[in-house]
Design goal:
The chain is α+β, with helices and mostly antiparallel strands. Helix content is 30%, strand content 24%. Bound molecules: zinc ion (2 copies).
Length: 179
C-alpha cells in the first residue's frame, strides 16, 4: 500500500517523529514499510504532518501526491520536505538541548561539547525506527547538515525553547566554527 494522509481514527496512535499522540480526527501521515520482523506483511508508522515533513520527507511527499484528503498546509509541508530531500542529513535533527555533561563528542568536528552548552540531537532512521545517534555543536550545523536554516525545525522538536534562547541559537547557527 502507498503512504497515505488520512484523519486519525482514534487518539491513541503516537507520532513516531515526536512521540506525542495524534488527536482523533487530525490528518496524519501513514508511512507503510515492510515489516522487518516478519517475512511478509507491512507496518504503518504514523506521523503528525509537520513531523513527517521534517523527518520522513519522501513519504510525506508521496502521501500528499496519492491522498485525496484536503491538506490546507500542503505548500508549507512540501517546501519543508523538499528541504529535507535537498539536504539528506536534515531529517536526522531531533531537537536541541543543553548538554547535561561534557562527555559527548560532536559527530562533525569530534571535539567535545562543553557541559551546559547547546547541542543538536541526531537520530538515524533504521528498520522502521529512529535510533539516537549522537550530537553536533550548533555551530557545526551548516557543515554537517548542509543547511543552517534550522530554527523552525528546532522549535518544532524542542517546544520549550524561550524567545531569547531561540535568538541565541540563531546567532550560533550563523557563526560556524573554523576547522
Ligand atoms: Zn509528531
Ligand atoms: Zn562540532
Amino acid at each position: 500500500m502507498a503512504h497515505a494522509i488520512e484523519p486519525a481514527t482514534s487518539g491513541r496512535a503516537k507520532c513516531r517523529g515526536c512521540g506525542k499522540p495524534i488527536p482523533k480526527g487530525e490528518l496524519r501521515l501513514g508511512e507503510r514499510l515492510p515489516n522487518p520482523f516478519a517475512e511478509e506483511g507491512e507496518m504503518t508508522l504514523w506521523f503528525h504532518l509537520d513531523c513527517g515533513a521534517y523527518k520522513r520527507p519522501q513519504a510525506l511527499l508521496e502521501g500528499l501526491e496519492t491522498s485525496e484528503a484536503q491538506v490546507e498546509s500542503a505548500p508549507e509541508l512540501e517546501a519543508r520536505a523538499r528541504q529535507g530531500l535537498e539536504h539528506p542529513r536534515l531529517p536526522r535533527v531531533d531537537g536541541v538541548e543543553r548538554s547535561p555533561t561534557g562527555r559527548a563528542a560532536c559527530r562533525h568536528c569530534r571535539e567535545t561539547i562543553p557541559k551546559a552548552s547547546w547541542r543538536i540531537r541526531l537520530v538515524f532512521f533504521e528498520e522502521g525506527r529512529f535510533v539516537p545517534s549522537g550530537f553536533i555543536h550548533v555551530a557545526c550545523a551548516q557543515a554537517y547538515l548542509g543547511s543552517a536554516d534550522l530554527i523552525a525545525r528546532l522549535k518544532h522538536f524542542s517546544k520549550d525553547l524561550e524567545e531569547d534562547e531561540l535568538a541565541a541559537l540563531a546567532r550560533d547557527l550563523q557563526a560556524p566554527l573554523g576547522d
